[in-house]
Amino acid sequence: MTRAEMLAELRQVLNAVGTNRSWPDTTLEGYLSEGQDKFCEETGFFTDLSNFTLTLQTGIAVYAIPDRVIQVIDIWDGTRKLHKVATGGVYTSIDSLYGYTTATGRPTHWQTDLETGSIQIFPTPTAAEDEEVLLLQVWRYSLYDLAGTGAVPEGGGAAPPAAPEIPSRFQRACIEWAAYKAFNHHDTETQDPVKASDHLASFRLYVADGRLALQRRHNQEVYVGSDPAYRT
Predict the structure, then answer these.
(1) How far is the C-alpha of 127 from the C-alpha of 174, rounded, in Å?
(2) Most confident of 7-21, 71-85, 173-187
(3) Secondary structure (H, E, C), 70-137
(4) Which end of the chain is more exposed for a tag (fewer CB within 10 A), N or C?
(5) Do 163 and 155 touch, CB atoms closer than 8 A?
(6) Number of Cβ within a 10 Å radius of residue 222
(7) What are the C-alpha distances in Å from 64 to residues 56, 120, 128, 172?
């Protein structure tokens, strides 16, 4: 479905066609976009190593995480994977790992939990690494906001069409989420908690199916067993 088709179906679900427009298009399109983002958060769609990069700059150790990224999984320098430093382990920061952050050179380590929305790398790049590109392996949202006109993908090219990126069999999850949000709107006389609850339940069914489909696509296997500590 295109965004226009999704919007038309959503208005049918809300019984808001014709002159009865309690919700403007921009609001409903925002809810549809939020639905796709929520679906990605709840299911694990999408992970890849081809859409986001980090371009090194001389003397710069901190870089912004792209807006459409939910989580940075790994960072690659060609075929070499940089080491991740995680708070809560033996080391709580790159500082505590090395005792200083003045070292310079080609990055070997990275961290995302020191400053919200940022990646810190170590050592700090020099002129020799300027404009070198690192690949980000990420768990992400759709490449563009469904409520917008479509952003040009990183790396250039034409803007994508205003249509959802999630597989077609799950696209109505966006409509169910949008209906849930619309029927929960407190500023109109159309609030209906019962209908909102029904649409949220339908959204969750799509999420459950989406998780199962993703497990099958990635050939994941789930095992359930007892704790080895209790085995005799």
Answers:
(1) 46
(2) 71-85
(3) EEEEEEEECCEECEECCCCCCCCCHHHHHCCCCCECCCCEEECCCCCCEEEEECECCHHHCCCEEEEE
(4) C
(5) no
(6) 5
(7) 12, 9, 21, 32
3-class state of residue 210 by DSSP: helix
Residues 10-62: tens digit of each pLDDT: 999 998 655 456 789 999 999 999 999 999 999 999 999 989 999 999 999 99
Listed residue (161, 164, 204) closest to 46, CA to CA: 164
The two tokens of residue 151 are 């952003």
Determine which of 13-17, 204-208, 213-217 has the lowest per-residue pLDDT on average: 13-17
Contact assessment for residue 150 and residue 160, using Cβ atoms and an 8 Å cutoff: yes
Written as one letter, the residue type at 224 is V
CA atoms 167, 69, 137, 204: torsion sign: negative
Q: Say if CB 50 and CB 138 are below 8 A apart.
A: no
131 burial level (CB within 10 Å; 0-12, 13-18, 19+)? exposed
Answer yes or no: are the C-beta atoms of 56 and 129 closer than 8 Å.
yes
Q: Assign 3-class secondary structure to 180-203.
A: HHHHCCCCCCCCCHHHHHHHHHHH
